[in-house]
Design goal:
Layout lengths: L1 H20 L3 E7 L5 H10 L3 E7 L2 H10 L6 E2 L3 H9 L19 H7 L10 E13 L5 H4 L18 E3 L3 H11 L9 H15 L2 E4 L4 H7 L4 E5 H10 L3 E4 L7 E6 L8 H12 L1 H11 L6 H4 L4 H4 L8 H4 L12 H12 L1
Parallel strand pairs: 1-2, 1-3, 5-6, 5-7
Antiparallel strand pairs: 4-7, 4-8, 4-9
Helix pairs in contact: 7-8, 7-16, 8-16, 9-10
Length: 348
């Protein structure tokens, strides 16, 4: 009897091991709160698999983990500049578009914009896009401050000594915002541009309590933080939970980003990864996901299924006049060390 039980256990273990080898487990590395979990659960049911889902709160942390740990992922969702960094480090598999029946659903405009970091759309599938903004709690921040509409709200004397402002823990976003406030492109690393950005950052830092890319979403809601640099979709999620939360896209312009799905080299479950990408590119699934995360979708078929109210909401889909002021953060190679130098001054 004991022998039979032991044999049964061995068979079960073998079956589990084989199912993993056959691709029944999919390992995903994505931003927090960046997918509708009902889609994850439905995919697991439809494809008889298990999704292991890890999250990160900055591109830098994502890349560090990919480079320094033995963790092996099948899908990762970096922003544009880090897609380019990963391409140049030979970390990504080319996308086989013949395995994606729903690739046709992507908006050609965003495929074209993606070529700035992924030439020929060879390695990345656009996932969502949006802006970096200032999120605030209307109970604590007077309208006359917000109506200034500038990045320099961060330096307003109203916030002095209160410790109620947070900025992203992301050097390219924070220094990029300071560059735009100073009248420069966020990718400009000339001596004059960085000197001007440094002066802006020193003013801002006096009012900043912490640099954080995750907890601000809840802290603006409960009033722990009054004003935060954050992402448009996070702001919209918070706005669903409180009438006191709103956000502003600064008048100087801001970073416009496209996050993409990539398959890292060494991915063990590529067939299942392709099925998951195609599943997300389905028009109805794309609509469900967009309604959950509140970011702008590059999926034209999904966009057409959204309500007219959503499609016309400038919080989610800013007008063309404003988008012309926005810039995409690019991979600037070793010049990022110049950004890091002034970033470290305020992060000490």
């Amino acid at each position: 009897m004991r022998f039979r039980v032991l044999m049964l256990i061995c068979v079960i273990v073998t079956l589990i091991s084989c199912s993993r080898k056959d691709g029944r487990v999919l390992y995903i590395f994505n931003w927090t709160d960046y997918i509708d979990n009902t889609l994850v659960e439905r995919f697991e049911q439809e494809y008889d698999c298990k999704i292991v889902y890890d999250t990160f709160d900055s591109n830098e942390n994502m890349l560090t983990k990919v480079l320094t740990t033995k963790a092996s992922y099948d899908l990762i969702v970096p922003s544009g500049d880090h897609v380019n960094i990963m391409i140049k480090k030979d970390l990504l598999e080319p996308i086989d578009k013949t395995k994606l029946t729903n690739y046709k659903n992507l908006n050609p405009i965003f495929l074209e914009r993606s070529t700035s970091f992924d030439p020929d759309n060879k390695y990345a599938i656009p996932y969502f896009w949006g802006t970096t903004c200032l999120i605030y709690n209307k109970k604590h921040v007077p309208p006359d401050i917000i109506n200034k509409g500038s990045w320099d709200i961060i330096a307003d004397p109203f916030f002095e000594g209160k410790g109620k402002i947070t900025l992203l823990d992301d050097q390219r976003e924070v220094v990029g915002a300071a560059l735009m406030k100073a009248g420069f492109d966020p990718n400009n690393t000339s001596e004059g541009a960085l000197k001007a950005a440094d002066l802006v950052l020193q003013k801002w830092d006096k009012n900043v309590s912490q640099y954080d890319s995750d907890s601000y979403k809840n802290e603006v809601l409960d009033g722990t933080t009054w004003l935060a640099q954050g992402y448009s979709g996070d702001a919209l999620q918070a706005m669903q939970n409180s009438i006191d939360v709103d956000f502003v896209n600064p008048i100087e312009g801001t970073s416009l980003w496209i996050d993409s799905i990539v398959i890292p080299k060494g991915a063990e479950h590529k067939d299942l990864a392709y099925k998951f990408i195609d599943f997300l590119l389905d028009a109805n699934n794309g609509k469900i996901n967009a309604e959950f995360v509140f970011y702008a979708t590059p999926n034209a078929a999904a966009y057409n299924l959204l309500s007219e109210e959503t499609r016309n909401d400038p919080h989610i889909y800013p007008g063309q006049d404003y988008l012309q002021k926005c810039k995409m953060i690019q991979n600037i190679g070793d010049n990022v060390l110049k950004i890091d130098k002034i970033w470290q001054k305020i992060r000490k």
